[in-house]
UniProtKB/TrEMBL annotation:
UniProt protein name: Multiphosphoryl transfer protein
Family label: Belongs to the PEP-utilizing enzyme family.
Task of the protein: The phosphoenolpyruvate-dependent sugar phosphotransferase system (sugar PTS), a major carbohydrate active transport system, catalyzes the phosphorylation of incoming sugar substrates concomitantly with their translocation across the cell membrane. The enzyme II FruAB PTS system is involved in fructose transport.
Stored CDD domains: PTS-HPr_like (cd00367), PTS_IIA_fru (cd00211)
Keywords of the record: Cytoplasm, Kinase, Magnesium, Metal-binding, Phosphoprotein, Phosphotransferase system, Plasmid, Sugar transport, Transferase, Transport
Compartment(s) where it occurs, according to its Swiss-Prot or TrEMBL record: Cytoplasm
Cofactor(s) annotated in UniProt: Mg(2+)
One GO CC annotation: cytoplasm
Domain HPr: 158-245
EC class: transferase
A GO MF term: metal ion binding
PANTHER family assigned to the protein according to its UniProt record, in alphabetical order: PHOSPHOENOLPYRUVATE-PROTEIN PHOSPHOTRANSFERASE
Coiled coil: none
Length: 835
């Protein structure tokens, strides 16, 4: 049953008008993880269509039906305005109940609320109380909501009709209001019966108290001279949906819960998600909630407010720089780059200028800044392109960082307890995750996100077990409830049995022993039990990681992302700067091969000096090799630096986003011209296979290069038309989908016929099941994140290639990624943790 927690009750606030009161309620709903910011505009839109004031000082603002996709989970917040807010009817609202409804779970809360409406004294008490528990007690059914003598609508004798409560959400405020409007057109007495309760059809409060859910049967009875006409009109109103808009498009389906793998035999309640970081932990759960930041709307001295905003922006920028440096030391440059990107968001000139313009119109610095960043974050969240929509969380994170320095009041909503906990959240912003203390956080479980989200990346780097995309039900768990987080199996187990706890303890010991064995054997080659070798290399993003790759047991670098040299700066790197970086990495490899990928930047990254226009879908625009052709000057400079560094050791050059033979021909021609200018020996050239057209043309492309490298992350999203970071589609954007594996098979077959080798450098290569299947399909080199190198090598040493090949063939005939993973678990249950 839906319950209201203390974090969902805000007391003693004030608002100049109804609009700001709704915004305050909406922000409380955002903070509690109930809605996306864009839903607030829909709440205001609803108010323009029909008022939400119920009476007795209570209003229930909520959004329009078409905005339900912005509701993250069903729930309510209660905001108290003791001085009252004019809601347009002459009577002030003192309790504003913001409603977020994906289902009809909130109806029970509203039923209890309508009891307050029948008792003005109780409504007045709650509108002025200083104890949030008083409101919680009423809405959670822990206290009587109306005096015992309250009259109940009595059944009436007359003609009746049978109708059905409108779907999907029943007789809630909007359809009940429509029914009241119809009933009041007639003089007849009209009653609505649901189960054993009868309501007056001309009373909104009475109808709401029925608590009729969608599809439930109702009986409408009318008595009086126009009773027949009244029933006829009411039947027509129900058939029309009682003002519930009918969409011509098919309704969006809620994502189905992920299936729990059959071999995860837990007694407790199992909530399945996606494995984002390995490990097993046991402890109490705790819901993560951010602090509430309160600012005044207006300020008397604009000049002082301008200075306050500039100072806050500068301080936040300094904080981000420090955070970047600290996290760089803990997790490396690639992971810390998240905070570099946040510095760019903070330095958006249009956003800063708009905030200053609001200050000129009399707004306070805090109010102006919050209005600007929330509006932009809300707009981003609603964009069709999932990558851009995913940046809304980053912008909110940056915005709140500045707002903390401007807020007049900061109230901590729910600090972490002193004892270690498994943290639950809708999703975590990068800076939230980066500040987590592994000693206090046993694990992370998020309702949203994906296995390659910022949360997952940072959790892995901090060695915190994590499960993502577990769905909204995970947030229904109460703080302190016992649980097991199985990062290897991708599940959270609530209320574990003693047997479950014992298994988890054994799993932790087993994981620790396995990791130590992998560390000791990290320099051994990955040779399968039947004598077949697979090279395991590392993906790196800066010179320091080259040394780490070798120390982790990497047999080379299968992907060097050169973008780090081009981002977070005002001018592009010159040839000497690039040469120094590449030379350092080549020397660090000490004779091991390194693949340098040419610049792979597109419209999804902010690089001011490139003057790239914003694109509606940057993944389908000018990026990768296309950008290199647009800026051939940068391409030639980079090639000169790479080719000069090749004199120091075995360097291979790889072109990203090749979609057609003509692009490869042009890239090779430019490279050869630069090589001849430098008069250096030729190097091996290869291409990324990451778009379907490259797979379909692989036989032609293979004749022109020395190797292929499959970028499984991009190939997956292009093949399945799903962004792996999408908040809804992330669980389905799995690189082990048979459609993706068939693309790999076709690529390897074309390469084999041309006599070249194939590597894989995407996330699937480091996945336990992915390493087995890619090897079985004939991929000769797996390039993975540095921490995964020892475990991938150990995994391959524990299996026979013949078994991997047979399993890979069978996987091609599976129906989805879930079936593929189950197949691998079944075949390799004892092979070094393959799952």
């Amino acid at each position: 049953m839906l319950q209201v927690s203390e974090s969902q009750v805000r007391l003693g606030l004030s608002a100049p008008d109804k609009t700001e009161a709704i915004r305050i309620a909406g922000r409380a709903m955002v903070d509690n993880g109930l809605i996306d910011p864009g839903y607030i505009d829909s709440m205001l839109g609803r108010e323009a269509v029909s008022g939400t004031y119920l009476g007795s000082g209570i209003a229930i603002p909520h959004g329009l039906p078409e905005a339900r996709d912005l509701v993250r989970r069903t729930g309510v917040v209660v905001v108290q305005f003791p001085q009252g807010v004019d809601w347009g009817g002459g009577e002030p609202a003192r309790l504003v109940v913001g409603i977020a409804a994906k289902s009809d779970e909130h109806i029970a809360v509203l039923q209890r609320l309508t009891g307050v409406l029948g008792d003005p004294a109780e409504a007045a008490r709650l509108g002025n109380t200083s104890d949030p528990r008083a409101i919680m007690a009423v809405l959670n059914g822990e206290a009587p909501t109306a005096p015992a003598s309250e009259p109940v609508a009595a059944p009436i004798d007359g003609n009746s009709i049978a109708v059905t409560a409108p779907s999907p959400h029943g007789l809630h405020a909007r359809p009940a209001t429509a029914l009241v409007e119809v009933a009041k057109r007639f003089r007849a007495e009209i009653a609505v019966r649901h189960g054993g309760t009868t309501a007056n059809a001309k009373s909104l409060i009475s109808l709401l108290r029925l608590g009729a859910s969608g599809g439930q049967p109702l009986t409408v009875t009318a008595a009086g001279e126009d009773a027949a006409a009244a029933l006829q009109a009411i039947r027509a109103a129900f058939e029309a949906g009682l003002d519930e808009p009918v969409s011509t498009a098919a309704p969006a389906e809620e994502p189905a819960p992920r299936a729990v793998p059959a071999d995860l035999d837990y007694d407790g309640r199992v909530i399945a998600g996606i494995s984002a970081s390995p490990g097993v932990s046991t402890g109490p759960v705790w819901k993560f909630q951010r602090e509430e930041l309160t600012v005044a709307e207006t300020a008397p001295d604009p000049a002082a407010q301008h200075r306050r905003l500039d100072q806050a922006l500068a301080a936040a920028a300094a904080d981000l720089r420090n955070l970047h440096e600290e996290f760089w030391k803990k997790a490396g440059a690639a992971k810390a780059a998240i905070f570099k990107a946040h510095q760019e968001l903070l330095d958006d000139p249009e956003m800063v200028a708009e905030a200053h313009a609001l200050i000129d119109r009399g707004k306070s610095a805090g109010w102006a800044w919050r209005a600007v960043y929330e509006e932009r974050a809300g707009t981003l969240a609603q964009l069709a392109d999932p990558l851009l929509a995913g940046r809304a969380a980053d912008l909110s994170d940056v915005g709140r960082r500045v707002l903390r320095l401007l807020a007049a009041v900061t109230e901590t909503m729910a600090a972490l307890p002193d004892h270690p906990v498994i943290l639950l959240a809708e999703d975590l912003e990068p800076s939230d995750t980066a500040k987590l203390d592994p000693a206090k956080v046993l694990g992370l479980c998020t309702a949203g996100g994906g296995a390659t989200s910022h949360t997952a990346i940072i959790a892995r780097s901090l060695d915190i077990p994590a499960v993502v995309a577990a769905g909204p039900s995970v947030l229904d768990l109460e703080n302190g409830r016992a649980a097991i987080l199985d990062g290897d199996g991708g599940v959270l187990v609530a209320d574990p049995s003693d047997r479950d706890r014992g298994r988890a303890a054994q799993a932790r010991i087993k994981v620790g022993e396995r990791r130590e064995a992998e560390r000791l054997d990290r320099y051994k080659p990955a040779i399968t039990t039947d004598g077949r070798r697979v090279e395991v290399a590392a993906n790196i993003s800066d010179p320091a990681e080259a040394v780490q790759a070798v120390e982790a047991g990497g047999e080379g670098v299968g992907l060097m992302r050169t973008e780090f040299l081009f981002l977070q700066r005002d001018l592009p790197p010159d040839e000497e700067e690039q040469f120094a970086a590449y030379q350092t990495m080549v020397r660090a490899m000490n004779g091991l091969p390194i693949i340098l990928r040419t610049l792979d930047i597109g419209g999804d990254k902010s690089v001011p000096y490139l003057r790239m226009p914003a694109e509606g879908n940057p993944f389908l625009g000018v990026r990768g090799i296309r950008l290199c052709f647009e800026r051939e000057d940068l391409f030639r400079t980079q090639l000169r630096a790479m080719l000069r560094a090749s004199v120091e050791g075995p360097v291979r050059i790889m072109y990203p986003m090749i979609a057609a033979p003509a692009e490869l021909e042009r890239a090779k021609a430019i490279t050869e011209a630069v090589r001849q200018e430098l008069n250096v020996p030729p190097v091996e050239l290869g291409i990324m296979i990451e778009v379907p057209s490259a797979v379909m043309m692989a036989d032609r492309l293979a004749r022109e290069v020395s190797f292929f490298s499959i970028g499984t992350n991009d190939l997956t999203q292009y093949v399945l038309a799903m962004d792996r970071l999408h908040p809804v589609l992330a669980p389905q954007a799995d690189g082990l989908h048979p459609a993706v594996l068939r693309m790999v098979e076709r690529t390897v077959d074309a390469a084999r016929r041309a006599g070249i080798w194939v590597g894989a450098c995407g996330g699937v290569a480091g996945d336990p099941a992915g390493a087995v299947l890619l090897s079985g399909l004939g991929v000769a080199e797996l390039s993975v994140a540095i921490p995964a190198v020892p475990s991938v090598k150990a995994r391959l040493r524990a299996i026979a290639m013949a078994d991997a090949e047979r399993t890979a063939r069978d996987a091609l005939d599976c129906v989805d990624a879930g079936e593929v993973r189950a197949l691998v678990r079944q075949r390799f249950a004892d092979a070094g943790g393959v799952s």
